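Entry type: protein chain
Record version: 2
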Amino acid sequence: MTDRPRALPPGTVGSVRVGRTTVSGVLPLMPGRRRRSPLSTETSWIDAGAFSDAAITGRQRGILKLIVQEYVQSGRPVGSKALTEKYVLGYSSATIRGEMAELETNGFLQSLHTSGGRVPTDLGYRYFVHMLMDAPELPSGDQITIRHQFRQVEAQLEQWVELAAVVLAESARSVSVVTAPRPAVARLRHLEIISLQPRLALLILVTQDSMVRQVMLRWPEDAGQPELSRLADELVEELRGMTGSDVDARIAVGTGAKRFMLERIAATLNGLDAVEQVEIRHSGLENVLTQPEFAGAESQALLEILRGGGFLSAMLPQIESGSGVQVFIGDENPTTELRRFGVVLATYGVGGEVSGLLGVLGPTRMAYGRSISSVRYMAHLMSGLVSDLYGLRADDQRGETQR
């Protein structure tokens, strides 16, 4: 016979410490057996300062946590009847409705239909991430599997980036975004100048991270290959290891063909530092295109965000390098196009020398715990790989999740 909801004796229900308030736990009903409380007995895993004055009671915290979890799982608005049928809460459906109404008044929940249940608002998700979510840690079995997958590919940066996108999408069950690690600024390693016609040449510029850029040059006067080769050798000797800004500072003292080349080299190096030059690898579109939030035109909007440079242009100024995992929910995102999404990002790399970006995006109704733990672990793994590749000391990417 299926269990019926019933109150439990004092002391049999779990609790979670959030700030100075203890939130009573609840037990979900399952046919034939009972599971542990969905409200963790662990302390809140992130600083609660941002919500220390929030007008929300302990009972409302418990209800909000369950509503977020149920809505993330089902995608359907959650009503009081659904909660009382699944969980032993210790209070009536009418009491829950009253608490849900209060949560809606305070901006944590909203009603999509007059007669339906409630769904979390951006503020409700944010409160959940800060105050109610269990400490996100990727299961050890998943960590072992991911490490094994990386051992199966050659020690090449290109393959690591491709695999990171695929594995992160599978782990977080969202769309992944990964950029290859790049130096903080482009530095010159080598250059060649190839004569094509008396006044037409090709500049081949190689940076220290092996990026190659070719630029067509129109000379102000005739120049042969011997002359161009001597100039190239002189410039390599003088400029090796310099940034675009460093080369800019030398333009004033250059004359003739050398000044002409200094201007072109500086412009090329500075252009390589632009956001538009960063390529995004993504994977896992199928994980979100089947979600109701991305029906019809919404799916095309997602594709445009990923294919264009708008995502990086919008998000990079918001990212604090080395600050661990950072979460942006709905209206917290910097552009209108991104405000229908939840975004979880982290930088990875080696100190201030080399860094890349990785993360996931999906509907605001994403499983934030799984997303955060997946992004955090992948950033830590990729930092170690890049450290070995470049022979530098890796950043500590295990910091707390940031706003």
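Comment: The chain has three domains: 15-132, 140-183+278-390, 188-272.
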